[in-house]
Amino acid sequence: MTSIQPPSETIWWKQPLDRVEGTWIAIALVWSLIMFVMMPVWHIYGKQNLSNEAYRTTPAAYMAKTQAMVDQYTVRTMTDQQIPVVKPPPGSDVYLLGRLWQWWPIIELEKGQTYRLHIASMDWQHGFSLQPQNINLQILPGYEMVVTITPDTSGDQTIICNEYCGIGHHNMLGKILVTEGGS
Ligand code: CUA
User: Fold this and answer.
1) Which of 57, 121, 146, 148 has the most CB atoms lying inside 10 A of its own CB?
2) CB 122 less than 6 A from any atom of ligand 1
3) How far is the CA of 27 from the centre of ligand 1 (A)?
4) Is there an atom of ligand 1 within 6 Å of 118 CB?
5) Are 115 and 94 in contact, with CB atoms under 8 Å apart?
6) 25 with 79, same domain?
7) Is 169 in the pocket of ligand 1 (CB under 6 A)?
């Protein structure tokens, strides 16, 4: 019999199951159930997953919110581009935007305090990669990502863009400064 001919037993699913086949089906079933359970378990107890929310927005609406925060909480500027360093109060909403080719503004947070960090793109796809923490988020225009963060180490964190976004991609850097706080 060749494969172009129909099988002799057309009602193949009524054939008795071979022991080996049954064993493999059982193994596959058990393993898929283990993985199914591990997804939520690891999301809650694992250390590598970031729980984020996402909302629809527009570049103009997001820019307005970011600008309002910058106007209210800028404490100084940094770098020769005079990028504002913004220090919002603990517990507040913090806005960071990605655009060709920078992360703006520079954000200063206090260690041990919790913030809601919003991130959106003003133009096209960027990748938010926080180093050395190795936190990665894909940032798309029209979507506002929100992550609840509590910095547990002080020091400067560097944001790099890890989605290729054009000629200035390699210069698309940003900063999150974490201070000891205690004020
Ligand atoms: Cu932004 Cu690469």
Assistant:
1) 121
2) no
3) 44
4) no
5) yes
6) no
7) yes
Does residue 36 line the site of ligand 1, with CB under 6 A? Answer: no
Is 182:111 a contact under the CB 8 Å cutoff?
A: no
Domain that holds residue 24: 15-45
- Computed from CA positions of residues 169, 171, 174, 180, in that sequence, does the dihedral angle turn out positive or negative? positive
Q: Is 165 in the pocket of ligand 1 (CB under 6 A)?
A: yes
pLDDT digits (tens, 9 = 90+) for 58-68: 999 999 999 99
Query: Which of 109, 110, 127, 111 has the alpha carbon at shortest distance from 119?
Result: 127
The closest-lying atom of ligand 1 relative to the alpha carbon of residue 170 is: 2
3-state secondary structure of 73: helix
Q: Which two tokens stand for residue 55?
A: 């909302």
What are the tens digits of pLDDT across the range 8-67? 777 877 888 889 999 999 999 999 999 999 998 988 887 766 778 899 999 999 999 999
Identify whether 10 is part of a domain: no
The contacts of residue 169 (CB under 8 Å, 6+ apart) are 101, 161
Looking at the fold, whether 71 and 113 belong to one and the same domain comes out as yes
Do 40 and 96 belong together in one domain? Answer: no
The closest of 98, 51, 66, 105 to 83, measured between CA atoms, is 105
